[in-house]
Q: What sequence folds into this?
């Protein structure tokens, strides 16, 4: 008998401002504790990935967006993208007004607007790939 691999579903948000900033969080838990990442998290039972994305953004940064306004970037489900096991994430894009206030929330050490042209070399997971896809699609 073959054991079936369990896939966990998550959603991430690339929140951009018109003047070229992206919202990142500093993770307060493993894996990648202390690393910068896109806001996001697990999709709960009965929740669409779009709803999860909007909820995680609010919970982690205090930024409220309409789930229906989130633009789909794509799905990242490559084996090995998360050291905890098999994870599939749906990534979304939203442009929010420059100066949108943020507050670090649940599971977040801090939240910060980063200029796209001065990003860190390495983001947690495959979030640099997601961010690249988002900025390529919004150009």
A:
């Amino acid at each position: 008998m073959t054991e079936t691999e369990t896939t966990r579903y998550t959603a991430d948000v690339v929140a951009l401002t018109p003047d070229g900033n992206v919202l990142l969080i500093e993770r307060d838990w493993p894996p990648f504790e202390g690393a910068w990442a896109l806001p996001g998290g697990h999709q709960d039972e009965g929740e669409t990935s779009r709803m999860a994305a909007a909820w995680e953004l609010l919970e982690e940064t205090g930024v409220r967006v309409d789930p229906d306004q989130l633009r789909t970037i794509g799905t990242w489900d490559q084996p090995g993208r998360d050291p905890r096991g098999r994870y599939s994430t749906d990534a979304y894009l939203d442009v929010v007004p420059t100066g949108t206030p943020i507050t670090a929330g649940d599971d977040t050490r801090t939240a910060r607007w980063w200029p796209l042209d001065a990003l860190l070399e390495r983001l947690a997971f495959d979030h640099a790939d997601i961010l690249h896809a988002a900025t390529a699609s919004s150009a």
